[in-house]
Every structure is written in structure tokens, then in C-alpha cells.
Amino acid sequence: MDIWTCNHILKIPFSFLDSFMWTSVTYYVMGFAPAAGRFFSQFLAYFLTHQMAVAMFRLLGAILKTMVVANTFGMFSLLIVFLFGGFLIPRQDIKPWWIWGYWISPMMYSNNAISINEFLATRWASPNTDANIDAPTIGKAILKFKGYFGGQWGYWLSIGSMIGFIILFNILFLCALTFLSPGGSSNAVVSDDEDKKKSTDQEQMHQVPHGTNEAANRRTQTGMVLPFQPLSLSFNHMNYYVDMPALLLLKRGGRVIYAGQLGVQSRILVEYFEAIPGVPKIT
User: Where is this region: Disordered (predicted)?
Assistant: First the structure.
């Protein structure tokens, strides 16, 4: 657990750098408010959004264990977070029995922080001419139309909420590592006799000469990793037979002239070769 905590803390500078680079590349290119304070406010929102997403997926990985299940539920969590984030579906269009999903969605607070930071800028302070929306400026009218918070307090509320989600996800992550059983195949219960026998076998293996161990290690390093303990088998009084043909005629150089059972054709071949001067009797 301490290793995971230290690993998370050490990765914060990388998240800080990634968020800063992303904000630097996209902020002025996309035409956001040019004020430097707005730039750093959006950078803070991106940084906390990244930390919140990392903590959430780390929690899912600690709970779900296996890669397939974690990927499946991770994509489902992304769908829910974006669906109730207030961007795809405005707050006014969410049914009352689903509004709780809007308030617990981490992405909702990120969208609020980024939107408030932009639409409360000076260039959006022109008077609102739409009589259907009760808001003094165009920026606040857009925020109210989309269902976002309408004041600067909403930005800091969203920042505090994202920090709370980061702390909550990390605490649940540590609890999952502490109290949940690790993934993978469960260990079988081994009796005391089997445990003693295994210890004796291991001691005998350690007593094998050093050269044999080195050869075995080389074979283990270069061969296939087996999911079981390899064993050596030996056989006593084992007879091995090869079904040889009844007649085999070879030419000089090892070329086979005839290989098969004795019969009429084979007898003709035998008589033919025996008639050659210098060839001994074959049969």
C-alpha cells in the first residue's frame, strides 16, 4: 500500500507537466479569454481533472482486478461520467429521478470550472438582450442556459469538489488494496505432511552438484516456462522393435533397389543379382 501511495505522489509532477503543456498548446489557439489569470485558472481545472480521472481508474483497477472486467467497466464508467457531465445533456433536460447522477458526476464539476472561467471573462460582459433568460450579461446567460453555476463562486466550488473526489478515490483505492483479496487463481490448501514433503524435496534439490544446477538453470532460462514442476521419467526392461522388411537390396551409395516382403518379384531380383559375376549368394 505504501508503494502505491508513493507511486501516486511521484506521478503528480508528470500530471502537472502534461496539464500545463496541454493548456499552453490549446488555450490561445482555440481563442479562450486572453487574460493570464484565466489561463492559469483553466490549467488548474485541467490538472485536477487529470488527477481525478487517474484516481478513478486506479480505483476501478483495484476493485475489478482482471484486465477484461476492468476495461469493460472502465468504458461503462466513462459513458456514465460524460453522459451526466452536463455537456451532452444539459441539467434542465435530465429527468428528476436521474438528477442525482448529475451531481455525483466528476466531469460535471470539471465542465463547470472550465465554462465559468471562460464566460465570466470581460469580453463576455456585454448586456444580455435575450428576454427569455434572466441574466445581466451574455456570459451569465450562456451559463444559465446550459445549467452551470452562475458566479465566480461556482468555479471554486467545482475546484473544491474535484479535490474532494481525488481524496475520496484515493482513500477507496487504498481500502480496496487493504481489504480485498488479490486477483488470480486461489491457492490450494496444503496439509502439513505435503508441506513437509515439499520442503524435503527442495532440500534434496539444493544438494545436487553445482554443475548440474547450472545446466538446469541454462535450460530453464532458454526453454519454455512450464506451468508445472517438470519431472524426469526412466523406464526399466523396455524393449524397442522396428518392423524391418524381409528383403532389402541396396545399390552402392545406399540407394534402395528393393524393400519389401519375399515373393515372386523379389525372387526374380535375387536371381538376377546372383547371376552377376562377383556377387555372393543373397539367400
Answer: 190-211
- What pLDDT does residue 249 have? 67
What are the beta bridge partners of residue 248? 259
Q: Which residue from 59, 108, 115, 53 is spatially nearest to 83, judged by alpha carbons?
A: 108
Q: Indicate whether 17 and 103 sit together in one domain.
A: yes
| Residue whose grid cell is 511521484 | 10
**Higher per-residue pLDDT: 261 or 44:** 44
SS3 249: strand
Round to whole Å and give the CA distance between 77 and 71. Answer: 10
- For residue 214, pLDDT over 60 is answered with no
Q: Supply the range of the domain harboring residue 260.
A: 242-283
CA geometry: angle 122, 128, 134, nearest 5 deg: 115
* Segments in the chain forming alpha helices (H): 2-10, 12-26, 36-64, 67-83, 99-103, 106-119, 138-146, 152-179, 192-206, 210-222, 264-274
pLDDT tens digits, 44-59 = 999 999 999 999 988 8
In a domain, 236, yes or no: no
Provide the domain count of the chain: 2
- The grid coordinates of residue 208 equal 545436487
pLDDT in tens, 149-195: 888 899 999 999 999 999 999 899 888 888 887 765 544 444 556 66
In terms of domains, do 124 and 42 share one? yes
Q: Are strands 256-260 and 247-250 parallel, antiparallel or unpaired?
A: antiparallel
